Amino acid sequence: DVKVTQSSRYLVKRTGEKVFLECVQDMDHENMFWYRQDPGLGLRLIYFSYDVKMKEKGDIPEGYSVSREKKERFSLILESASTNQTSMYLCASSPGGSQPQHFGDGTRLSIL
Amino acid sequence: QKEVEQNSGPLSVPEGAIASLNCTYSDRGSQSFFWYRQYSGKSPELIMFIYSNGDKEDGRFTAQLNKASQYVSLLIRDSQPSDSATYLCAVRAQGGSEKLVFGKGTKLTVNP
User: Fold this and answer.
1) Which residue of A19, B1, B14, B87 has the fewest C-beta atoms within 10 A of its own C-beta?
2) How far apart, in whole angstroms, are the C-alpha atoms of residue B28 and residue B13?
3) Is the peptide bond before B10 cis (omega within 30 degrees of 0)?
């Protein structure tokens, strides 16, 4: 089975802090994704990566950056956290070739 | 802007009935279609995927695709209370992109 592991289930940070969310997959997948999910807005793509050191903006990249130094790990960075970034953050991976994406358990991030 | 539309529900069915979940999409060139189940507070879990017109069955679940009508559906036979969840439809566009566009989901309640 595909295993996508997110480093924290719950996280509380303060405004202005730099926040790191980590995601690791164990299936040698080419593609990795970061989404946020908010009530009434659904899943929105922040960034994705199709190879090591490669990244592409999603629909809502403002206020975020990403890093993929190794194939199995994809990090989401909130450069200066704000209260409107309080959300559920979901990481996913896929092998490519139109194969499905598989999600981690999610990180519920609260910015106070 | 590519769109995926789902009836937000809630859809309520009695235990043992057939639940029918529907999804329409705007990009006629879309190639791959996915159904995810999401329990409250949890991350999305892949249920079915379908690439070709017609029906695809897996246990109690059947996915139906009609590309001419830009319509994909999920049928759940013999619905159980444990099927109560939000069901997300996701569509991958043509052109080789691995990005998915998600609908906002349909909340299903199966009443004992």
Assistant:
1) B1
2) 31
3) yes
**Which residue among B31, B32, B105 places its CB closest to the CB of A42?**
B105
Is B18 within 8 Å of B27 (Cβ atoms)? no
| Contact at CB, A45 and B43, closer than 8 angstroms | no
- A29-66 pLDDT, tens digit per residue, is 999 999 999 998 999 999 999 999 899 999 999 999 99
Nearest by CB: B99 against A45, A102, A103:
A45
pLDDT in tens, B48-94: 999 999 999 999 999 999 999 999 999 999 999 999 999 999 999 76
Interface test with A, best of B88, B100, B102, B106 (most A CBs within 10 A): B100
Closest of A24, A32, A37, A2 to residue B46, by C-alpha: A2
User: Residue A98 is nearest to which of B46, B51, B103, comparing CB atoms?
Assistant: B51
